[in-house]
Amino acid sequence: MKASRKYGIIAAAICIVIQLVLAASCYGSSEPALKPLTDWRFTWEGVGTGSRSTDGIGPASGWEPYRMKQPLQLSTGEEKAGWFETKLPALIWNTPAILLKPVYGIKIDIYVGQEKRYEIDRDYRYDVHHILLPLSREDAGQTLLMKIQGGSGRIGMDGPVWAGDYQTLLTKLIKANLGDIVLGSSFIFIALIMLISAVLLNRSERNSWLSLTVVILSIGLMILTYSPFVYSLFRSYGEWFQVVFDLGLLSLLPAITYYFERTIGPGYMLIIRICRKFQTGYSLFCLGFMVINLLSGSRFSDIYYLFSVKVLGCIMIVLLMILAASAISYASKGNRDAAVFASGFALFAIPALGELVWFYVRQGDYVLFWWKWGVLGFVISLIMILGRKFAHNHRQIVVYSRELEMFNSELQRSEKMEIISELAASVAHEVRNPLQVTRGFLQLLQEKSRDREKEYLRLALEELDRASGIITDFLTFAKPEAEKVSLLNVGYEFRHIEGILIPLANLQGGRMTTDIPQDLYVYGNSSKFKQAFINMIKNSIEALREEGHIQIRAYREDGQVVIRVADNGEGMEPSEVARLGEPYYSNKSKGTGLGLMVTFRIIEVMQGKIEIESKKGAGTVMTVRFPAAASGEQGAE
């Protein structure tokens, strides 16, 4: 139940995240008219010659038309700069502004006329900017110049530039980034809650729980720190956002492979375990390289970029394909968790692999977008798998608890029976001889006594015989092993039992019928076999009411001989059935409980099992199962 509640809470949290994201997508859907700035020109730094006659900013010649959504490519590490210009339109809004997103570059300076209005200079590789630049109405008709310096392989713009009201553009900017902020923050929050909850789990469940926590936390950190909005909002922390993103990426793959290994399996020829160890080692290598690069003032950033982006991306593609193939393999063998994993993984892998391939085809000139939505479905599938695992573990614990309770009960019964067996054997041997001597003297006295005294002596002898019968039962219980084991024909044995008990059933006002084939054989001692079933059937006869009926049927089933004794007598309550076979327990006024106790012991020694079903007022069914023996086998001494 605890696992189910945890699973429900987490699923509810994911649903809340989805609702928030959907709400964010609807927010600000109706907006006042915006005007796109599409007439741009471009030139490289140092290509144009001369100076401007009006403002003196930027080159005077060498300008060419610039098409939007086509960033210009640079060689890796090249710090070449380019100039972009356009004319500002009529600014008819009360608080005009322009929104540029995304803009690619490491260092950006924006001028309106001769006045610098915006400046940013990053010393790390993240080159995506969302810029909201406030203007005034007097800026209408002015030249807007933007100088962009590269360093990570591209400069330029990959979307339309909008002019409009400041608040409207701010809403547009927030709307474009709110999904990432809400989704990433929600994942982080859920991971922290899961981390706190981990202290309540036992060790067997904690490892899977923590690995899923790391997966969700890593994804949340990556989504949050991949958004350009946080870099624009917190400019001074951009380098640390890059570090956090890399930490999330380096911990994600080992956590996913470890989670897969724990919840589904190690894969064909332990390939998932091998991948997990390799990925862990490679992540530690990249982590060490990152620390060295930071301490050296980013002197090795190009080499670190090679290992942490290009090489790691290729490793990620291979690992995702291996995980997908392993999940499909397990699912084809009937593993439901693998089927859930494969379905959720498909939601993540299809857009992620497509975007990674497209990222390399474009030589890094692509902003990954769809992977974050695919990862939402993937995380939900991981939570479902863990929830199923916890529910299964809970069911197993319940089953094990019941089995342990039954084992303890059986152990206590065995110990009790062992003590009673030893006591019974000791008492029976010590008491039987004095009883026999006493009986002999009473018989001598009976011969020489008068009639009235003979009646008393007769009663005394009857009680001594009853005591002797009880002692015999004690000895049978204490040592039920048959002196001679032979091959018994069940039908033949029951013919003798019928001859003894049918008259007794008739006197009770009932009847007894049998249906026993002649080809059923078991191993045992004939007298003990008869004693056991006579005790059982006598109990059924004594429980009969008017028009009582006892039906005895035998048959072979799954290599066993099954003997079924059913009556329509008084029946018993479940509590009474549970106590049958206990020493000194009997639901008859003069019973000692030893009869059924001896019966159970005889059946146990013959390697049989007895099952009792009873309902008060409806009757009782006693089913005994013995290992079947072939008719041609010989008895064993």
From TrEMBL:
InterPro entries: HATPase_C_sf (IPR036890), HATPase_dom (IPR003594), His_kinase_dom (IPR005467), HisK_dim/P_dom (IPR003661), HisK_dim/P_sf (IPR036097), Sig_transdc_His_kin-like_C (IPR004358)
Enzyme Commission numbers on file: 2.7.13.3
GO molecular function: kinase activity
Keyword Kinase: yes
Record-linked SMART domains: HATPase_c (SM00387), HisKA (SM00388)
Record Pfam families: HATPase_c, HisKA
Tree of life domain: Bacteria
The protein's name: histidine kinase
